[in-house]
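Please, is this right?
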Amino acid sequence: MSRPGLFERLGASARVTVVSAPPGSGKTVLLRSWIGEAGLGESTAWVSVGPGETDPQQFWLSVLGALRRTSAGSGLVQAVSAAPGLDGWAIVERLLKDLAPLDDRIWLVIDDVHELGSDEAQRQLELLVMRGPPELRMVLAARHDVRLGLHRLRLEGELTELRAADLQFTVAEARELLAAAGVGLPGPALEALYERTEGWAAGLRLAALSLAGHEDPERFAAEFSGSERTVAEYLLAEVLERQGEEARRLLLRTSVLEQVSGELADALTGGSGGERILQDLEEANAFVTALDAARSCFRYHRLFAGLLQLELRRTAPGDVTGLHAAAAGWFAGHGFAVEAVRHAQGAQDWGLAARLLADAWPGLHLGGQAAIVHELLAGFPAEARAADAELAALAAADELAQGSLEEAKRYLARAALGSVSVPAGRHGQVQLLLGVVGLLLARQRGNLPTVIEEAGRLQAMAEAPETAPPGLGEDLRALALTSLGIAEYGAVRFEEAKPHLEQGVALAHRIGRPYLEFTGRAYQAAIEVSRSFTRAAERSRRAVELAERHGWTDDPAAGIAYQTLGGALIGQGRLEEAEPWVQRAERTVRPEADPAAGVRVHSVRGLLELARGRDADALAAFRAAERLGGFLAAPHYLALPARAWLLLALVRLGETGQAEQALAGLGEQDRDRGDIRTTVAVLRLAQDDPQAAAVALGPALDGSAPVVSRTLQVESFLLEAIARDALGDPPAAGRALERALDLAEPDGALLGFLLHPAPVLLEHQARHGSAHAALIAEILSLLAGRTPAPPPAAAPPLEPLSDSEVRVLRYLPTNLSAREIANELYVSTNTVKTHMHHLYAKLGTHRRGEAVERARTLGLLAPSARRR
């Protein structure tokens, strides 16, 4: 095979190239392929050192003969005959003298140089390496490094080194190698085979030979291991049988481990010096790889580990259980709980494994390691999970994480029932597990009273010295606070949820629990979306950054952040930007595990489709949200908004009769809410009754009907403008539309203008002196399906704006006075005036209008146009 990257490194100008890698890595084939492709046959002297070569004279005669067969060496190197007293040193000195006038390059390749068993011959080779003429380039291929003093060449930049990692095949090269043998594997099967062989050339070649004509190549590739006959024979002969007795014993007894240190090796062998043996094996390229710079922790190549395990079962089958038990004890004693559980399972000590996992589970859960818990639980037999109260509690948590609420409830009940019979020493741990899992289950079901009860119990447990789990007191408090905030969010008790989430996030950050911090931040963003799309988007992005940093991008809390970010972008009319985030939410959220999250993601999808005018798709999404809402313990806060959007979709589809029937089925209190009133207004406008529409909107406009979001406020005034225009009252229509624009401008809340398009009214408003001409142009551009042009580059403010100043800035384009802005922001009028003064100074302006224009130039206003 042609391997251009390696060929280029071989042909580089270094005086010496070392190719050092385990047997079967393709060293010899690589060098012969390079020589052939580069056309170096006549300028290459090739010497293969035989097994256990100890005769320096024989070695040097081979070198001399190979050099004489090259085009440049044939006229320079003199023939030498074998003789009893012929000295290797004399041959090397003769060679140096003969090659001194060398002008044309010669490549001297010495293959299997590790077989050169004579120390004297190695010192003579070092002399040739160090004193050879510049045009003599040497390539030394070996299974392990040979001590030739090459460190000096390394310092001088005259040494090229190709190691095992360099010789590993890539996936593409593996595919090419298999294809050359007539074997084709689909992508996943090829990836599995590549992972098992780790790109080892001989492993891939042996697999190719076995795969050719195999009746089920995909299954063979998935199960390929070091116990496969051809691989086992090769590794046994070329690696294991070449080791000394002490090294062989260590390799076999530690083959039950995924990683091994010297101390752990000594614990399993009952000997000493394990670290030295492992370091020697690594230096010998015996399929042992160091995992740290200090070379204190190692792993075995997957195929080699498979061979070792096979050989251990063959030669000492009775030792396997004891080795796993010893490993479990060592790992447990050194604080490696996950590894301890795995080896306790390997020893089939189910009681020990259950206790170890139960003790480790709170930390694993708080660390976002649900996948590891799932894997460990799968290692227990079904009867153990059913009979052990602690395992039953963990199974409940696992079922909850996997999306089965009913199974979780069943396992939790079984754990509670079995908790009365656990030993006294384990009673506290069982109560902790029952409390945490009960809290998580109640949180998923939206059962706020139970969450409050369980959170209180957990905090009490964390604070009491006699019940606080060692090292977990503050962790449990952070979990309780975060869970309480999440449940309160689901119950639309935002003002109560906000401080609990803030406290939980701050505590999680302080104690180093990023998973809890990430979860809390996701829900903080969800709360913020009803107040500010911009702040919600910023908070969501922070949560997403945490998820990406720690590998939690598929976690349910990440789904909350995705859908919140998507919803915020939809609210600002940034539909194309929203789409990928909504898709990520749909891929991440599991409605069967978290119906509340399912309600949210379907509602966001429906809203996006409504804004796009895909009303049938929107209707399907809202109906799916309604179905999921039935699984919750209490009505979801989005239930009524989703019903309003569903009715809007029906009206837009021309199904006004169905909409009327649905409205009639609502209670009086629900019909009086602002979101339902706006939908009634849309229905009446569709029925050509603008007067009835205006009547429906009245309570939403004067504040007597609850209006829960800025978007809904914008919609109400926009629909009022449409109704007043239809009634022939342009001044009233203009005032209502200007108020809608006032409300939309600070946060770029443009969704209402997409749901209820009114381009003619907007154009008329722009011509008659609206304070929002740029915003109107932006809305008209969105309605026309065009993407607004980015703002021109401009110098930044003299100083960065604070968050409070940014919030005030977004109200400056409106007609609101400082007092009215203060009322909107729930601060004092003096505070607003102070922020305005600072804004003028930082923006380099003197008046409100100048500050607005400067902010528009900088992209600080109308984020839907400026923050793309």
Notes: Confidence is low (pLDDT under 50) at residues 786-794, 863-868. Strands lie at 16-20, 44-48, 106-111, 136-142, 159-162, 260-261, 288-290, 297-300. DSSP finds 48 helices and eight strands in the chain. The first strand starts at residue 16 and ends at 20.
